[in-house]
Design goal:
The chain is α/β, with parallel strands linked by helices. About 30% of the residues lie in helices and about 30% in strands. It has eight helices and twelve strands. α4 (about 70-75) links the parallel β3 (about 60-65) and β4. α1 packs parallel to α5 (about 90-95). The termini are far apart.
């Protein structure tokens, strides 16, 4: 991995902003991800993210923290926040922004205990696949203190398929329709494609229950997105 996301985030943090990130998936064409959006403040965040942050309490783990906007907001509110990301550049930017505890780490290597775990901006993405999701959910559950919660968002992306393509992928059963190949490029370089998972609400609820987690939908958005709260049953 070239860590182009981290490079872009670090460029912006260091005042070297000259162009944005280009993203695509195997079922969608190129789209622009503006770097300033990753550095947004609370008032600029979507309602789903605001509601998650409003419900965050206690000792916090921010999984896939990116540029650290969620962690920074919570830290400024006085919460004890640990931010983790697999991207070295992103973590460096977080530390430069003043986040006290930011680490380059895969969540599967995390062993702390937390009152709230947040994972936002399609927080289920790093589950990678439907097959891998139980492993991640079971591990997240093991990181919760008694009475703890996981606040995580996702989207039902069936709207991205035309009717025939959607029916075909359902019938084939070779791949869950929310499993995407995610492509990223920055400054003329391309990243190794990532496996990225979007979960429809019913499927996420079933996976959560199988892992001994209670699933609650806090709110849903206008673009088939939703915020889920998971707690131990």
């Amino acid at each position: 991995m070239k860590d182009l996301m981290g490079l872009a985030i670090l460029d912006y943090q260091n005042g070297n902003y000259s162009e944005d990130i280009i993203t695509a998936t195997h079922i969608s064409s190129n789209d622009v991800l503006p770097l300033p959006y990753l550095f947004r403040e609370y008032d600029q965040m979507p309602l789903i993210e605001q509601m998650a942050l409003d419900r965050t309490t206690g000792k916090v783990l921010d999984v896939g923290c990116g540029a650290g906007s969620h962690s920074l907001y919570l830290q400024e509110k006085g919460l004890d926040v640990t931010a983790i990301d697999v991207s070295e550049g992103s973590v460096k930017a977080c530390l430069k922004r003043g986040i006290k505890k930011a680490f380059q780490k895969n969540v599967l290597d995390e062993s702390g205990r937390y009152d709230t775990i947040i994972s936002l901006m399609n927080g289920t993405g790093w589950f990678q696949s439907l097959e891998m999701a139980p492993r991640y959910l079971n591990h997240l559950k093991s990181l919760l203190k008694p009475g703890g919660q996981i606040l995580i968002d996702s989207s039902d992306i069936r709207y991205m398929y035309d009717h025939d393509a959607f029916e075909l992928i359902k019938l084939s059963r070779e791949r869950y329709y929310g499993e995407l190949e995610y492509y990223l490029s920055y400054k003329g370089e391309s990243e190794v494609p990532m496996h990225w998972l979007y979960l429809d609400m019913d499927t996420f609820k079933q996976l959560s229950m199988a892992s001994g987690l209670k699933f609650e939908c806090i709110t849903s958005g206008e673009h088939y997105d939703y915020l889920a709260r998971l707690t131990c049953q």
